[in-house]
Each structure stands twice: as C-alpha cells, then as structure tokens.
Amino acid sequence: MSTAVSAQAPPAASGSFRWLIVPDDPAVEPSRDLVGGKAWSLWRMRSLGLRVPPAFVVTTEACAAYFAGGEQLPDGLADELAAGIRLLEQQLARTFGGGERPLLVSVRSGAAISMPGMMDTILDLGCTDEVERALAAETGDPAFAAEVHRRFSCFYGRLVLGCTEELDELPDTAAVRAAILEDTGESVPTDPWEQLRGAVAAVFASSRSRRSVAYRKHYGIPDDLGTAVTVQAMVFGNLDDDSGTGVLFSRSPVTGAREPYGEYLPRGQGEDVVSGRVTPKPLEHLKDTHPAVYDELIAAADRLDREGADAQDIEFTVQRGELFLLQSRPAKRTARAAVRIAVALVDEGAITPAQAVRRVTAEQIRTLLRPTLTEGAADGAELLASGTSACPGVATGLAVATPEEAQTTPNAILVRRSTSPDDVHGMIAAAAVVTEQGGTTSHAAVVSRALDTACVVGCGAGTVDRLVGRIVTVDATGGKVYAGELPTSAATEASDDDLRRLAEWATAQAPIQVLAPGADAPGPVFDADELPPDELGEELPEIPAGTKTVRGAVFTTPEGVRAALRSGVAAIVAEHRLPVLLAAIEHSGGTS
C-alpha cells in the first residue's frame, strides 16, 4: 500500500474556496491565523522539499462562523469539503468511501497558537464495512483492515458522539459499535461524508471544551481563538513490521542539549504514543532497524531546526519503510532547556542576544531557582516508585488520584494510570504529575513540560494504589518518588553560566536596573517589606512620588515590576535579578 505524495499542483479551482485553503504552493505562504499552526507547518515542510501527506484545511473563519451560527456548519462548507476530498483523490489516485484503492483521512485541530493535546483529532476517517474489505484486499492483511476500522469507530464514538465507555480495550468493531449505541443512543455513520461533516464539527466544538478553556486561561491565550481543521490523507504506522510512528525533538526538551530526543513505536499510530497507553521504544530502535529512515529523519529535523531557529517537535510516521512528516512546531520545553537553547542559538548565530532574552520567561527562571533535593537526602529514604523523568523538578505533597482532587488540595501530587486532555485542569493545579504508563512524548510528559511541572512517567502498574493518600516527594529529575518529605536546596544565578550570560544580555536590554540586596541604591528608596502587615492587602502598595528605588518581595512579582515601571523608578532591589529583568523587558514591550 502506498500513499506517495504527488508533485502535481492541485487544480486552480482550489483558489475559489471560501472556507478552505489548500496550502500546497511553496511560493505562497498561508496566513497562520487562518490555517492554524498545524497546516502552516505542513506548508513549511513541503516548501522545504520534505515528504508530507497531502492535505487541505478548513479555516478559523469557518470555526467562527460555526459558533456564530449556533454550532452549525456554515453554508457551503459541506460542498467545499467534498471538493477538498476530490483534490486528495486526484493527487493520490484513491477514492474516498470505497473503490479498490480507498482513501482514508485524519481530521486534526490546529489553532494559530500551539495548544498541544488540547483539541481533538480523529484518525482513519472514511472507514466503512466496504472500505475495510477493500483495505484487506489491497494490503493482503485483513487483520490490519479490521484494526483500522475498530480504531476509527473508537475515535468517532468517543470524540464525535460523546461515548463515555472505555472503547479502546474492546476486541473488534462490532463490540465498539454496540458499546457506543448503548451509551449514546447513536450509531457511527456508515456514510463517509456524514462522518467527515460530523468530525469537522466535533473538532470545532473541542476548541471550547473545558480543557481548552483551562489551557488558554493558564497561558493568557484569547478565548475566542477557535481552531482550523486540517484534513490530511492517512499514512499507516500500524501497517506492517516496516511501519511505525514517533515523535522527535531536534534538541532535548528536558536539558536543551543539541541532540535528537524522541521515541518510536513500531506498528503504531501517533495516538498510541501521545496517549500514554503504550510505552514506546527509544528512538535508537528506529536507527537499529531502519538506519536509512533514521538518517533521513535526523537530516529533516536538523533542517527544520535551522530554518525555524528554534528546537522543533516533529511528528512522523513510517509506512512500509517510507518516512512521512506530519507536523513540526517549536517544542514545549522545560525551564532548563529554554535557557540552554536560547544561549546555544546565540552561539550558533541563529538569533541575537536581544532575541534570546525574549525566548525565556521570568517564570521559567523562577522555576530554575526552585529547590532541588539536598545531596544525600534520598539516602535511606523509602522508594515508592521509579520511572522516566519527563520534566525535572522536586515537589512534596499529598498524592491524589483525580484532577478534581488536585484542584482542591494544595501542593497535590496527581497520580494517574495515564493522563488525557480531560486531566489538564488538575495538571495545572498539581505540584507534580506521576503516571503508571507512557513515555517521554506521552500526553503527561508534553503537557507537564509546557507547564514546567515536575513529572515522572512509566512507573508501572500499581503505582496509583501505592502512592494515593500518602505524603510523597517526587524527584522528577531522577525519576523517583519517595515516601515522606525530603530536604531540598536551591540554585543561584551566579553558579550557572547560561543564567549569568542571560543576565548580562537582559541587563543591557532592561528599562530598569535590578540591584542585589546591600548594593548602593539611588534614593529615595521605598521598602514595601517595612510596611505594617495591615497595609499589605491584595492591592500593591502605592509608590510615593519621586521614588528612585523600590525594595520588597512584592516588587519582584510581575505585577510589582509593572507598577515600578509605571511609576518611573530607576531600580528594583531583588535577591534574584534575572527574573525581574526579564519581567521588565516583557512589560516594556521591547522588540525581539
């Protein structure tokens, strides 16, 4: 079975679409606001000559029209979806919904601002009983065709029809269909065009799900952002022993090192990796089994890293020994990796020092300066669980089993079999996340790195039962979970060369001085820490007119830095200079 990408351009009629864009012309860059980050990355990869399955995209304007029209597909979109599918059929010589060479598609979300794992993706769409028989005949593998049909039914039942039953463990399509019908009173459509319309509407709707709203609120992303919908020809990592799927980071998202970092799952689809239900193999497995594919992948990652002047998170699928790239985006990374990558890119000549200080946030620096386990603290401690470090850090708290408990328990340690987008609100609230299943590119790992929350994954069966209800210390740097509370110690800016260099660059860019305690400070000085406790409420203290320097913990917060800038003070006194400098640069609106 082959879905090799045709070099032929789509018909000129694609330019007449109102709701669709076909981002195939390498000379015409599509608007990221219209097509979303996922489709934009497909255009970018294809413009670089990399192998990408063909696709078209339903724009964010169609999403806005969907909600404005009472959650109904806008007029004309159904016809345009059919025209878009015809373009894919022409490019691949396949037929949607039947024929000897059937076409299946993925329906994927894609907001203008990356929100990994927050919105829905439906794979293998277009599968019916007839298509299953055609796939079995084409591939010579009825078991593969049956599995594709079963997987699609699971996706559609869960994400479009809202089935709450556990479908993934059911043995076949008939069992999945029966469970969906019993739970929802609805059936998976046998008409592939009805499937497509339902999937597009479901992806639109997922942009306003609880998890998406919580993610946008946490990161200050506009709530009316919506999503584009990318409809892309399927490639099958679960086809045979020469097929698989994986995720590759061009630089380590944990340490920032300039080395490949990722995982590969033979005979799997991308959802298997990110779901955390399966623990994939290290990327070296692909190198050992398919060295030519591995070399092609690494070369593509290096080029995307250089072209994007940033670490890349790349999704890929191998089908019968042929590499296909599905997405490339700036990688979510830990605070440590953000600092290392920013400094390294300056050394490589990819960005300037002024750009580097805009690549790192004040909160990330505060994260780096948080405590770590004191040397020898774990000696003799009771080890409760051991897994893989997905995001370093140390946290102590009560282990809880649900995201709702994490929201109501201060410093909670959220322990799950695996996480899904429905757990995000609890992950935001938790001090650390621990999972039984999954690897370093699972949902739990990716989201925890984005949140810079300590995370250990793949701790094995029984971890939830062993931990929940106990006070534990998570040493996510070492991938360990210990009983009780262990002593910690904190790092300093002066002890880290990357932090020192960033501080030098930030000092040159910041609109205000940041002085160490005890340094000579221009007067008059206003010290908020000397105010009586009853004068320190929820509001920031008023800075007296003519003040040249402010001192006090309140003025090291983002709100405090903003108030100092508004008041025209010359300096802020702070124990840790770099986070205050970066906050001042951000609030001043300095350019990158």
TrEMBL record:
Pfam families: PEP-utilizers, PPDK_N. It comes from Pseudonocardia thermophila. Signal peptide: none annotated. This is Pyruvate, orthophosphate dikinase. PROSITE patterns: PEP_ENZYMES_PHOS_SITE. It comes from the Bacteria. Residues 33-68, 77-293 form the Pyruvate phosphate dikinase AMP/ATP-binding domain. InterPro entries: ATP_grasp_subdomain_1, PEP-util_enz_mobile_dom, PEP_util_AS, Phosphohistidine_dom_sf, PPDK_AMP/ATP-bd, Pyruvate_phosphate_dikinase. PANTHER family: PHOSPHOENOLPYRUVATE DIKINASE-RELATED (PTHR22931), PYRUVATE, PHOSPHATE DIKINASE 1, CHLOROPLASTIC (PTHR22931:SF9). One of its GO terms (molecular function) is ATP binding. Residues 410-479 form the PEP-utilising enzyme mobile domain. The lineage of its organism: Bacteria, Bacillati, Actinomycetota, Actinomycetes, Pseudonocardiales. Keywords: Kinase, Pyruvate, Transferase.
